Amino acid sequence: MISRALSRSVLVIALSFLSLQGLAEPSADAVRLSNAPLIDGDVLGDGVWGKRALSGFWQQRPVEGAPATQQTDVYIGYTDTALYIAVIAYDDDPEGIIVADSRRDASLDNGDSFSFIID
Fold first, then answer.
1. CA nearest 89: which of 57, 45, 61?
2. Is the pTM higher than 0.70?
C-alpha cells in the first residue's frame, strides 16, 4: 500500500516537472554592433540597430502573463566597451501618459513601466 502511494507521488512529481520544461524562461541575446548608436532618442533613425527589435512581451500587472496591451520594441546591442539598450514603448493615447514619479529608484507600482533585468 505504501509503495503504491509512493509510486503515484513520484509519478505526479515527475509529470509536473515534465510539464514545466515547455515553459522556458524568456531570454535574449545582445547583438554585436558595428558602431556605437547615437544617444539622441531617435532609435528608429539610427541604422546601427537594423531590424533587430524584440517584441511580443507580456504584462505582470494587472493580469500576469497576459499579452501586453501596447506594443513595445526593445533593441539590445554591445560594442567592445559598452552595452546599449533601446526601448520604444508605443501608446494608443500618449496624451494620457501620467508621470507618477521620476525620482531615481522610485517605485514603479503606480503606472506603466518597463523593467530590464540582467542576470
1. 57
2. no
